């Protein structure tokens, strides 16, 4: 296959082409970034399905996953927090709903990827979401007809051959120099976390999801997972602690979205789903808002709402079990473990091998966190 792309990274970079086999374009005209996101997302869901045996999905933006998840039942609280009324979804649709719901803000205009064929249930979910593309191994005919009408017929639909295997060496050219690195084929399995630490099935599942997601995230990166989905991704930071703060802050927000006070917010009827999402973000950041911003947020509600207190936040976050965090490399200082403890994270996986492993391990013990050294680095640049 050799096709001309819409443009490169930016519209003024008009010369861009794609060459390769295994990928079909069923609808739309792709751009350079579209395909980078799609191929990164496809690798993630393919590996996650292989590791868990469960339908998997990812929501990708700017070369990193905003969310990733395996299919699991959606309870009423979760659906209410995501503004969803239809809970009778197929397995592959459920996986995508959970992946996208891991970070509703960052998933806006995403590249969706699923490990299983796209069915009518998933197509109907995508109908109501702002999304730029979908990549999957196959499509049911009716699902394809629905998706081809999305975005006035311009929705990008890609089909990936599930049997396609790339070469062992990758090629990349930068500033006239060609790099030929070996592709990262390190398998992440339950045995990756078998360092003598006693883990529950839920913890192993969460570590698998978080660590496989990190493998396809721009480094440095840290991910928090709960119940088989990423709920906090801190990607592309130069400092490990900044990755951790991002991931944990996002995880806190995800958990608090299901707090009764949030679920009961009395929105004015004119607000769209993205607008309601923005209001909830402001509500959860109440103490950081100016008086004018607080007033603006309250104007989106039928009656004024009482913000969450610090004790209410801590008690709610502390009610969740088996929260796990993974890092794409080692933690050089204890600060990330201290931050993880504030988000009720009980299990942490990292590469290990730093000269400062001992103080990091001491911090984990002090915070009652199970610390796992995988001996595996998963940088992506």
List keywords for this structure.
381 residues, alpha/beta, Cytidine Deaminase, domain 2, Helix Hairpins, six-stranded mixed sheet, five-stranded mixed sheet, 13 helices, 15 strands, 36% helix
Give an overview of the whole structure.
The structure is a single chain. α1 (about 30-50) packs antiparallel against α6 and α4 runs parallel beside α5 (about 140-150). The protein has three domains: about 1-165, AICAR transformylase, duplication domain (Cytidine Deaminase, domain 2, 3-Layer(aba) Sandwich); about 190-255 and about 315-375, AICAR transformylase, duplication domain (Cytidine Deaminase, domain 2, 3-Layer(aba) Sandwich), CATH 3.40.140.20; about 260-305, Helix Hairpins. The longest helix is centred in the N-terminal third of the chain and has 21 residues, at about 30-50. β6, α4 (about 120-125) and β7 (about 130-135) form a beta-alpha-beta unit. The strands form four sheets. Strands 3-8-7-6-4-5 form a six-stranded mixed beta sheet, sandwiched between helices. A five-stranded mixed beta sheet has the order 12-11-13-14-15. Strands 1-2 form a two-stranded antiparallel sheet. It has helices spanning about 30-50, 75-80, 90-100, 120-125, 140-150, 200-215, 240-255, 260-265, 275-285, 290-300, 310-315, 335-340, 355-365; strands at about 1-5, 15-20, 25, 55-60, 65-70, 110-115, 130-135, 155-160, 170-175, 175-180, 220-225, 230-235, 325, 345-350, 370-375. The chain is built from 13 helices and 15 strands. About 35% of the residues lie in helices and about 20% in strands. By secondary structure, the protein is α/β, with parallel strands linked by helices. The chain is globular.
